[in-house]
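Open question from group meeting: does this chain pack into something compact, or does most of it stay loose? Before anyone orders reagents, we agreed to write out a predicted structure and look at it together. Recording both the input and the output here so the notebook holds the full record.
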Amino acid sequence: MRITIEELENYLESNYSGFNDQSLFMKLIEEVGEVAEVLNKLSGRKLSEDTDLKDQLGNELADVIHYAVGIAAVNGINLNKVILEKDKIATKKYNRAVNLEEYIKNIRNK
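Structure tokens returned:
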């Protein structure tokens, strides 16, 4: 199953309605720290006996996305729109040939 950013925003908005966005931010920071820990283990900077580090990394990144989108949702931010707009600016800034919106249109038209 695939989900859209909008679907995730709506789901998290319904789950976090009335939540303090600062508490969600603290959870986000906690999860970013957990991503850093797994990356340190994967790179060998930190010893680990875990064999499922890629799975752990995926789980921690999912948590980061969850809380980042949750913060946007409770603040009424349309991340889909913001991501596309920011990418257009970055495409010009970094002199890339195709922006995200064009890339998606090209893939969907194939």
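Observations to bring back to the group:
The chain has a mean pLDDT of 94.
Helices lie at 5-16, 21-43, 53-74, 79-93, 100-108.
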